[in-house]
Structures are given as structure tokens and as C-alpha cells.
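The records we work with from here on pair a chain with its fold. Taken together, the C-alpha cells spell out the fold as the letters spell out the chain. The record below shows the convention in full.
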Amino acid sequence: MSFTEEQKVFLSEPLVVENVSKRDGTGNTKLSYLASHHVIAEANRIFGFDGWSTEILVLKQIDRTEYEKAPYKPGDEPKPMVSISYLCNLRVTVKSGESTIIKEDTGFGNGVAGFSAYGIGSCIELASKEAVTDALKRCMRYFGNQFGNTLYNKDAAPLPDMGAVELAKPVTGEQVMELRALYKDREINDEWVENLLLAENFTGGIDGLTQDWFNHIYKLTSNYKIAEIKAKTYTDDMEKVIEMMKKSVNMNMLKATFKEAWEKASEQKDKATQLSVQKTYNELKDKFEAKK
């Protein structure tokens, strides 16, 4: 079957620990599983809402046991109980373009309740739904780790968390463009960045960056010649901020623009401009106070 490139990316993503639920097993063990709503949401995300479907091939009761539950307290009557089990054979069909893939598997469900008409109905509902859900999850695991296939492997490595997976994702074309947009002001090029990467012990090149490496290299590149760049644009930037100060409509806006202007002048150790900005601020402040 031919999945789209985007689907291949989604299917190749590792299962993260945040998406795995736990329940008590036998003894003191804990069993890992994927909640049914998560499996359905992932199928919709990867295959599309109209790209997959299910068909129940068999849904049948395979066991019904009536028994008495021992009383909690001496002198109480035993409680009549009923246990009902269902088996479901399910088919999942996934479509991608002209291709179709079909997977089938079997699920089991059990319901237990007090013996009564209501209790029997409740058991049937619980057992049948559980069997269908179990069969669905077992079918979906054939599509890989996103649907919990690794949970069946007791020797599998520990699952990564969502943050680690995001940082390990490859850099996007848009991000590479963002990095290259820094070149002109800094008079650098791809070769300069490639050498920086080698110096930082990364040999995969610009297009081979992962998100964590991209963040690291982008920061280093941004800071290169940053003082010179700020100095070049300082005059124009300061004029714009001062103009915004003069157009302030209230004290909050005046304070914000004054703070920005003061910090810019401070970075350049421009005492004269700081004094001028302070004077402008005081004059505008007096005007606002006079209007009260």
C-alpha cells in the first residue's frame, strides 16, 4: 500500500509515554494500553475522517456463568452474580489514494454484575463493547508504534516523552529559510553555518538538523555580530520608538514606549538620548495628569 509522505511521517513517529495509560494486572503488575478514544483520534489524524472504516464480522457470546458471591459480613446472604463474555472479530479498512489495506483481528470482552434482568443487560452491553474495542485496537496495532505495537514487546526500550520526540523531529524547509534570513545582516552564508555545525560536533548539515540542534544553531547565528547590527539600526529604531511615545494615548502606552526607548539607549550607552527620552516622558506625563 502507498501511504502519502505525510502519513509515512505520522506512522513513523514513536509512541510517547504521555499517550499510554496504565491499569492493574495480576499481582502487583501494571499493564500498559492505549485508550480507545486515542486510537480513534490517531486514525482520524493519520488516515483522515473518511479514510478508514470498521466492520464487525462476528460478535457473539462465548460464555455465561452464574455464581454466588460470598457475603462481606457473617449472616448476610450470598449475592447472585452473572459473568458474560463476548468475542468480536473485526475488520479495519484503510484507503490511501487508489490503494486499500485490510486488517482483521479478534477481541475479548467481559462484564460482571448482580444477577437480575438489568444486571444481565448491563453485562451484555459492557462485554460486547469491550470486545469490539479490544478488536479495534488489535487491528490498528498492525500499523505500527503510533497504535501501540511496541506495547506488546516486553523487551522494548522505554517510551520517550513528548518533549524528546518534538526535539528529535527534522528541521522544516520554513525553518531553514528563517535561518538563512539572518545571513545578509551578518555577512555569512551556508558555508559559515556548516563550519559552525562542525565546530559544535554536528555532521548532518543544515538540512539534516533536528529541532534541538536547529534551536541551538539559530541562537548562535542570531547572536553573531548582534552588537554591530543593533548599532547600525539604533538611530532609526530610536526615532520610531520616540515617535510612538509622542503618539501615546494613555499612561500605560507612554510607560511601555518609554521603557523600550530607555533600554535601547542603555544598550548603546547613549546617555544623551536617555536624558532626552526622560525629558520627553516627563512632558507627556504632565499633559496626561493635567487632563485628569
Q: What stands out?
A: The radius of gyration is 32 Å.
